[in-house]
Amino acid sequence: EFVFAFLGASFCGAMMTAANPFFTPAEIAKQAKASKAKLIITFACYYDKVKDLSCDEVKLMCIDSPPPDSSCLHFSELTQSDENDVPDVDISPDDVVALPYSSGTTGLPKGVMLTHKGLVTSVSQQVDGENPNLYYSSDDVVLCVL
């Protein structure tokens, strides 16, 4: 579901952030507010951590099991919708696509803005088989952003 949500959000020109499920409701609320979240996708077991964030500006969606209450959407509403109904959006390579949060080792966690261009560049560097500076073997581990 994460891949579908991420790709769907990026296709619509939105950005995606992920919260640590071990965060307290207050920590999740802080990240949701700072990132200006419009939709929170969660598992039913974490619903209680985010239920107080539901309002006109922020919708909640559960991935598994029936939604805990009528105001909560179900992930199937996204997966079963018609992709042709999505409006065309102009997306710049410099638009933010992902907003992972730092661990906050030197202070409070902060959103790290990753652009479409940066993400594509990062992936390209890892998969470009023509790069003479990359020598991969089956024992190698590649560390990359996102």
Describe the structure.
- The chain is α/β, with parallel strands linked by helices.
- It has a domain of 89 residues: Rossmann fold.
- The chain is built from five helices and five strands, in the order H-H-E-H-E-E-H-E-E-H.
- Strands 1-2-3 form a three-stranded parallel beta sheet. Strands 4-5 form a two-stranded antiparallel sheet.
- Helix 3 links the parallel strand 1 and strand 2.
- The protein is globular, with a radius of gyration of 18 Å.
- It comes from Rubus idaeus (Raspberry).
- It catalyses: (E)-4-coumarate + ATP + H(+) = (E)-4-coumaroyl-AMP + diphosphate; (E)-4-coumarate + ATP + CoA = (E)-4-coumaroyl-CoA + AMP + diphosphate; (E)-4-coumaroyl-AMP + CoA = (E)-4-coumaroyl-CoA + AMP + H(+).
- This is 4-coumarate--CoA ligase.
- Its cofactor is Mg(2+).
What key attributes describe this structure?
three-stranded parallel sheet; two-stranded antiparallel sheet; 5 helices; 146 residues; ligase; nucleotide-binding; single chain; alpha/beta; 5 strands; Rossmann fold; ATP-binding; 4-coumarate--CoA ligase
